[in-house]
Specification:
It is a single chain. It is built from 12 helices and 19 strands. With 414 residues, the protein is of the alpha+beta class. The protein has 3 domains: 109 residues, Gcn5-related N-acetyltransferase (GNAT) (Aminopeptidase), CATH 3.40.630; 166 residues, Gcn5-related N-acetyltransferase (GNAT) (Aminopeptidase), CATH 3.40.630.30; 99 residues, SCP2 sterol-binding domain (Nonspecific Lipid-transfer Protein, Chain A). It has a 7-stranded mixed β-sheet with strand order 1-2-3-4-5-14-6. The longest helix has 16 residues. Bound molecules: coenzyme A. Coenzyme A binds next to β4, α3 and α4.
């Protein structure tokens, strides 16, 4: 029998031992210890430990209380991280039991969803987790950025100063409201973000810049220059680009392009449908193609996974772009009748009650399908096309106008 409890200081050595086996990367013992005690989203009080019959810890996982925006509403999210089971205890259902425990704790707390960054998706897919939007990780030549963007940068972009902190918080919070799945960043997270030695921070001023630092800032970009050894090629890796408007975004990308005499490439992650590269000329720069692919402009990367425990609560918690009434049936393949819910969406929010109509006109899906559509930004039409949901085409199109939200753009890893 396994038991669960909150982690304590005296567990640390054993926890690091389990962690080291589960994540054998070169990360030092000290960093692992700090990760348990001073993770930016919480410390040992957020870490759940599994004990075996003899009372020895054999597994651990974090459950952070996060808040993120979905459809313009702030939603409580259970952030799950550092899931690990000791080598000698694997394959006995311990991780599965631990995940169930975390889902129950998160449900009790009133979270709408749990979210995690999986190292392997398969383990979590079995538990009802769904993938969220993929993103484009562009690798673009610094010389491919249009000259007018660089001119805009010369007029607007400057180095960040100590007085800009509040402007950064404000810009990030505003962008998070518009975005899908962006996590409200606690102070400790910001401190780490700003304190990173090699990170360079630039700020874009609006057209009417005021002398007081940051008051009229319309965006910022944080990036790191990466060079494997002295004299080797330098790449510019963007950690975060936040802009209030399109002009600020062009100016900030223009500012990155001003690094062209040092860095050959800019690596920048954007939403999958973002057309940024369409404005560039020869974005693949000095890279050459193959007979199959003439111009590779970057790669596609997967997003976090999400899971819904309580469908009614999850559907009522997020915001909506349109209005309408419809039924949703959630059922596992080969399972029983499932849950049938009726949604009435008005003024951006949904009232969720018993289903009203006939099942034929309803959206029918699984727990994972529900999470993919309502929290992973997969359109109903796409979910139907992928066999993840069923709905007549006209119903899918009507629902898309109600449930659509922007794709998940880069989300803080936790
Ligand atoms: C992943 C991990 C936590 C699983 O721990 P565990 O206690 O052995 O897991 P359980 O016994 O509860 O479940 C194992 C089941 O999951 C399945 N599973 C595991 N990884 C899977 C994957 N990638 N795809 C599909 N199924 C997977 C196994 O086949 C097994 O199924 P079975 O019971 O039908 O045979 C453990 O292997 C571990 O610590 N790995 C290293 C760290 C890690 O990868 N953490 C999770 C990612 S953040």
């Amino acid at each position: 029998m396994t038991t669960f409890r909150r982690a304590k200081e005296s567990d640390l050595e054993r926890l690091v031992e389990i962690h080291l086996a589960a994540y054998p990367d070169p990360c030092s013992i000290d960093v692992r210890m700090r990760n348990f005690t001073h993770h930016p989203f919480g410390g040992l009080e957020r870490l759940v430990v599994v004990e075996d019959d003899a009372g020895r810890p054999v597994g651990h996982a974090f459950l952070f209380p996060l808040e993120a925006s979905f459809g313009g509403a702030k939603v409580k999210v259970g952030g799950i991280a550092s899931v690990a089971v000791a080598p000698e205890a694997r394959g006995r259902g311990i991780a599965t039991a631990l995940m169930r425990r975390l889902h129950a704790l998160s449900d009790r707390r009133g979270d709408a969803v749990t979210m995690l960054h999986p190292s392997r998706q398969g383990f979590y897919a079995r538990l009802g987790y769904a993938t969220t939007s993929s993103r484009k990780r562009l690798a673009i030549a610094t010389r491919s950025v249009p000259e007018p963007w660089r001119a805009l940068a010369r007029a607007r972009v400057r180095a960040a100063t100590g007085g800009d902190e509040r402007a950064l918080y404000r810009l990030h919070a505003r962008a998070a409201e518009r975005a899908t799945g962006w996590i409200a960043r606690p102070k400790r997270c910001w401190e780490l973000f700003i304190a990173r030695e090699r990170r360079i921070l630039l700020v874009c001023e609006g057209p009417r810049a005021r002398p007081a630092g940051g008051a009229s800032a319309t965006g910022y970009v944080a990036f790191t220059l990466a060079q494997e050894q002295l004299r080797a090629e330098t790449r510019l890796e963007v950690d975060e680009l936040v802009a209030d408007d399109d002009e600020a975004r062009r100016a900030l990308v223009g500012a990155l392009a001003a690094m062209r005499d040092q860095a050959t490439e800019i690596v920048l992650e954007v939403a999958e449908a973002d057309p940024l590269e369409r404005a560039l000329v020869d974005p693949d720069g000095r890279r050459f193609g193959t007979s199959g692919v003439e111009h590779a402009l970057g790669e596609i990367v997967g997003g976090p996974m999400v899971r819904i425990e309580d469908p009614s609560r999850a559907l009522a918690a997020r915001g909506y772009a349109g209005s309408g009434a419809f039924d949703v049936v959630v059922r596992e393949p080969g399972g029983d009748d499932g849950v049938a819910l009726g949604l009435c969406v008005r003024g951006g929010r949904a009232e969720v009650g018993p289903a009203r109509g006939r099942r034929r006109g309803a959206l029918q899906t699984t727990r994972a399908g529900l999470a993919a559509i309502f929290y992973g930004a997969l359109s109903v039409t796409d979910a139907v096309a992928l066999g993840m949901a069923e709905a007549p085409p006209e119903v899918a199109a009507r629902l898309d106008a109600v449930v659509k939200m922007p794709p998940l753009a880069p989300v803080d890893a936790f």
